[in-house]
Amino acid sequence: MLTRMFSAKTEQVIQGFGGTQPLELKLGIELLSEQCQACYKAFHAFQNWCKSRR
User: How far apart are the first and last CA of the chain?
Assistant: First the structure.
C-alpha cells in the first residue's frame, strides 16, 4: 500500500510503502456483530421516539 504523509521536520510531503496486517475473520465478525446490535438498538429507540411524538 502506498501512503502519503506530511513530514513536520522537513515540511515536505513524503511517500512510503507499507501496510497493516488484515483483521482476523473472527474479530471482524465480532466487531460487526456488536456494531449491528448497536444500530438495531438506536433504530428501536428512534422508532419509540417517533411513536411518542404522535
Answer: 52
